[in-house]
Amino acid sequence: MTVTAPARPSGAAVAHSSGAAVGRDPLLDNAKFLAIVLVVSGHLVEELRDVPAAHALYFFVYLFHMPLFIVVSGYLSRNFTFSPGKARKLISGLAVPYVIFEVAYSLPRFFLYGKLEISLLDPYYLTWFLMSLFLWRLSTPVWQQLRHPLAVAVGLCLLSGTSALPDELSMNRTFGLLPFYVLGLMLTPEHLDRLRARRARIAGGAVLATVLAGAFAVHTLVPTEWIRWRHSNHQIGVDDLTGTLIRLGMLAVGALLVTAFLAVTPGRRTWFTGLGAATMYAYLLHGFAVKVSERFHDALVNPLGVAAMAALGAVLAALLCTSPVRRAFRWAVEPDVSWAFTRLRRPVKREPAAT
User: Fold this and answer.
1) For 93-122, what is each residue's pLDDT tens digit?
2) How far from 61 is each of 39, 89, 193, 247, 302, CA to CA, in Å?
3) What count of Cα atoms within 13 Å lies in the side-chain half-sphere of residue 20?
4) 34: Cβ–Cβ under 8 A, 6 or more apart, which residues?
């Protein structure tokens, strides 16, 4: 089916079940696909960081790849309300897949080690993003009514670093990465239009190249936990003042790199634009391949092995976003749970009794 593109790209995203999209901005889908390539490749080389170049590239990618997804998710959540349709989509698109993959990723441990541990409140492995996105999206109407939402979100991020928050509800990441979601909520199509300018692309490329060079220079000096957003300041080994300053720096660098990455991302339709609409499939499914690759760790800890796994990540990310994979795993990633819903129940208004 041919879809006529609108004269001016919009941030609104409405996808057909067939995967074709109406009103989607190609810039965002292109950015999502390129970002999922970084995610998958990053996870495949994560255990190979004894190779210095792999460690440097891992550090660079983790500075912004999840912040990028979160900013885009925030941007596409600007119209979220507590209307029945949006609430149902929140449950079917995030809550139900979270339960499915929380169980699925726990099964290998059971078959390999006879150990089955499932805690729906404590996300395991990749599922933290579903939990955090669920909570962020629920909070959307609140952020849209605050006068200075980004400042409040940054404040909550910094305060969260001063406390050893529990692992339940992925609280460290939920609060730590919250500013990127709120930043996405604050963006407008006009902001994205500015990134399409030639000078923005040049500046974005320069920023990415500069930070990449810096990552090679400092990657051994910065604890990896700072780029994972999983722990408090004291758990990482610094006082709150130092940790607060580092978190501010991480937020600033992350926002800068997200902006730069969006600026160099093609704004027109490409061969991978359609794949960018299905990145959740690649995100949730690639973890099984990562777990298998860990068994070949000793043979891959060398520059050739790192290059091979990075290339495999790009191919795997693309394959997992294709139509055959979507058809095969739609039951898990985009389950149809319409049978579980009924009409919205509203309280019955009683007329005051006559006197």
Assistant:
1) 999 999 999 999 888 777 766 677 777 888
2) 8, 30, 25, 17, 19
3) 7
4) 261, 265, 272, 276
